[in-house]
Specification:
Blueprint: E1 5-13, E2 16-23, H1 29-37, E3 39-40, H2 45-53, E4 57-59, E5 79-86, E6 89-98, H3 106-181, H4 188-219, E7 224-228, H5 229-244, E8 258-262, H6 263-326, H7 339-362
Antiparallel strand pairs: 1-2, 1-6, 2-3, 4-5, 5-6, 7-8
Helix pairs in contact: 3-4, 4-6, 5-6, 6-7
């Protein structure tokens, strides 16, 4: 269509123009050898002009000084050099070299530019395809890694759950045996301590069951449907009612939307979230209850210490008062007997202290 000639595609690299693709022979061995060796980047204007300007460069009669190769291009007539780009990135320059001169008509120019645009679109699609395939391969690799991780997680979950469940079961079993053995012999505080331990053990069992349920849910296939979350939440509340009868729990549930997903998986997620929230609240109640017990015990011990200090203070006060009245020189007639009088006074003080202690005991101060 264009006449006898050749088509060559060049790309710049390391200050040289390298011929990547060629269709047709130039019928000039020395010119072909120079092209195969690489043309100077700065001196080959027939390639440099369209590369830097981004516009086609047409010569109806090739100027032999264009590329600084006058002795090698004697058989070249007309040339058309068109840049090749993908997006905003230049890739190379396509050159059509004819052996005869040619007047490049508008039809010729439009035909060549349309061909280059088609080539650019094809290259762009090929590049996008490579990107998509690379992403697909990366996604497949990641999917395989996740599948392997899920299998490891499932095995780990079963192993850990079994290892955790055994000591918790033993703890609760011996705790219940202790409660039955000590039935009626525990004060309120001790009974409350055992209740706290039992509730903590039951909560641990609940967490272990939740971990197993989550591991099983990962392996189940998804069946997407339209799910009313309000209905699912109401069902979860009904299932939790028996566990919450002994506690003052107030539900606050905002209106939930309808979503598309697997009903069982969504129920499992909402159930776990609800149970986790309840577990946090229950833990808070346990902490507060334990703190109240601790404060009650501390207050009781403090009260006992104050009572003892009060009795000691009263006793020392009585001794001091008696000593002050009697005098320490035993000048009072009662103590003329010397050491005998001192012993009598000491015994009297001890008896008085004993009376004070007996009175405190009867009043349950000590």
């Amino acid at each position: 269509m264009l006449g006898d000639g050749a088509a060559l595609y060049y790309e710049p690299k390391d200050d040289r123009w390298h011929n990547r693709v060629q269709h047709g022979s130039l019928h000039a061995p020395e010119l072909q050898a120079a092209i195969d060796a690489g043309l100077s980047y700065a001196d080959t204007n027939n390639l440099l002009i369209p590369w830097t300007s981004g516009q086609p460069y047409f010569q109806e009669m090739y100027d032999q000084n264009t590329d600084q190769l006058p002795s090698l291009v004697g058989n070249i007539g007309a040339t058309a050099a068109l840049p090749l780009r993908v997006g905003d990135i230049p890739l190379g320059v396509m050159v059509f070299a004819l052996f005869q001169g040619r007047t490049w008509s508008n039809e010729d120019r439009m035909l060549l530019e349309a061909a280059m645009q088609s080539l650019e679109l094809a290259l762009d699609r090929a590049q996008q395809t490579r990107i998509v395939m690379g992403q697909r391969d990366a996604l497949n690799a990641r999917t395989q890694e996740l599948a392997a991780s899920n299998q490891e997680l499932q095995a780990f979950s079963y192993s850990v759950s079994h290892d955790l469940r055994t000591p918790v079961r033993h703890m609760l079993g011996f705790l219940r045996l202790a409660q039955r053995s000590l039935d009626g012999r525990l004060d309120e505080r001790s009974a409350r301590y055992l209740d706290v331990v039992e509730q903590a053990g039951e909560q641990m069992n609940t967490l272990i069951d939740a971990m197993l349920d989550l591991a099983r849910a990962v392996q189940e296939p998804l069946r997407p449907t339209t799910v009313e979350l309000n209905t699912v939440m109401a069902q979860i509340q009904e299932t939790l009612v028996p566990d919450l009868l002994s506690r003052n729990v107030q539900w606050e549930v905002a209106p939930l939307p309808s979503v598309r997903g697997d009903r069982d998986a969504l129920r499992q997620v909402l159930s776990q979230l609800t149970e986790n929230a309840d577990a946090v609240e229950n833990a808070r109640e346990l902490v507060i209850g334990s703190f109240d017990l601790y404060m009650a015990g501390t207050a009781r011990r403090t009260n006992e210490a104050v009572q003892i200090l009060t009795i000691v203070t009263v006793s020392l006060g009585i001794i001091g008062a008696v000593a002050g009245v009697m005098g320490t020189n035993f000048s009072v007639g009662f103590f003329k007997a010397g050491a005998t009088g001192f012993i009598v006074m000491l015994v009297g003080m001890l008896l008085l202290i004993a009376v004070v202690l007996l009175f405190a005991r009867r009043r349950c101060w000590i």
